[in-house]
Amino acid sequence: MTDRSTLDLSSRDPDWWRQAVVYQVYPRSFADADGDGLGDLRGITRRLTHLSALGVDALWLSPFYPSELADGGYDVADPRDVDPRLGTLDDFDALVAEAHRLGLKVIVDLVPNHSSHQHAWFQEALRAGPGSAARDRYVFRDGRGEHGELPPTDWQSVFGGSAWKRVPDGQWYLHLFAPEQPDFNWENQEVRADHRTTLRFWSDRGVDGFRVDVAHALVKDLSEPLRDLGRPELSREGALTALPPGTHPFYDRDDVHEIYRDWRKILDAYRPPRMAVAEAWVPGARRALYARPDELGQAFNFEYLEAGWDAGELRQVITDSLATARAAGASATWVLSNHDVIRHASRLMLPPDTDLNAWLLSGGRAPAVDEAAGLRRARAATLLMLALPGSAYVYQGEELGLPEVADLPTEVLQDPIWEQTGRVRKGRDGCRVPLPWTTDGPSYGFGPGGAWLPQPPGFASYAVAAQEGAEGSTLELYRTALRLRRKLLDGEELTWAADVPDGVLQFDRCEGWRCVTNLSATAVSLPAGEVLLSSAPLEDGRIGPDTTVWLGR
Length: 553
Prior knowledge:
The protein has a 7-stranded parallel sheet. Strands 11-12-13-17-15 form a 5-stranded antiparallel sheet. The longest helix has 18 residues, at 311-328. It is an alpha/beta fold. Helices cover 26% and strands 12% of the residues. The chain has helices at residues 41-46, 48-54, 89-101, 120-128, 189-204, 256-268, 284-290, 302-306, 311-328, 344-347, 356-361, 371-387, 416-420, 464-467, 474-488, and strands at residues 21-25, 58-61, 105-110, 140-141, 164-166, 172-174, 209-212, 275-278, 333-335, 391-395, 495-496, 504-508, 514-518, 524-525, 530-534, 542-543, 547-552. Helix 5 (189-204) packs parallel to helix 6 and helix 12 packs parallel to helix 15 (474-488). Mean pLDDT is 94; it is low at 1-10.
């Protein structure tokens, strides 16, 4: 285990996270050290110099815990251990030590809404039977109908179908996600105590913070009789605006904040305090509650991720997001891609009314996406994001400009969404394809063997080795942007410019740092100032379409 005496030195600034750039590592797709085709902790450790050279402040590790991968690792069988296929606790300690040596913070995923059905508690619950203390740790209920043959409610799983699964003795258990992910009962004090233990376990091992998965879903209204929603679409996270705030039976209930106030006391007991960020798919005003200083402190801003490539829409989202964060006493967060969404180098090129699942089912051919145009737009979007005040979360591979692998053959798909929806929704595998590090080899340097998802031949041109040191490459653009950002960043305010051309976003940051993004179809004049960085070459001194420029005075 990491020596506690070194932990206080990992950051002397307790607010380091407020304007940090955090790099998300999806462990199974980052780097494979042992050649089994699955990324692992030793692979990550060997590649940490890439993150250090990139210039990020921290890495966030998606789940590396024991799991049968029913949901890409988010079905956790033991939240205080490492999946043997990914390494050991000693490997984890070595990763943290090397990250801290390189000046990188480490954030780990916490999955408190549910466990794996392989978790010792759930297996005990199955053996113990109805009415047992073991079953009370989860949400078990008798079914409806003459013989209990109908689910207890009409609640739907995020992945499709009923959110209830029947067990052999006739009872049903709740799973808001896959059937292999039974939901915890957060009214149970053992559940609460066990998660406190998990927070302390990883904090004691030197982690600097936590990303809280599905932070808005822990507390459910379990008063009898359980109430139906009436319409299947109300089970989806995006339907919260259809009900009065805090009244949904299993999303964003007011009582959830008591849990996070309790957690904050634990996180603040460390020196420096551990940070936390909520994954809470809730409207902005409600998101602010999770980001309060006495709760998690920060929350992901999904309105920005979901915004179209439109100057007016983006300006409104940015303005609202900054106001929401300010009201919470937090800093804003910005993200363009993650392990759950189509990579933005492809997504931003799709027409606003595109059915994203239909696009995936077409193999990315209806409509076709021009990869070069998508990369240009992605680079512009990145410089815009990195100029905003607050924290930027970068998903692995976006520094290489990777597009979505939309044409994965159905026989290789791993995401449970594919099977659970009756092979109607293709799922998220296309953004989880292992990274290319070299231009050749069986997995483009991901590991000495193949990769758990097939990489397209075009990945060779995106590889780290192909871009390193190459003038104008996306990798070098990120490195330069992050180096400049570190020098220029000060304060958490921006000032919008007046009288800008249609389709242009322009704002000033501290000490004369100016960002201009042209989202229109025509080139526009370059404002006064020294060009510090441009996402694409200027066109006779003008800013071309889909281009962002940073200017100094």
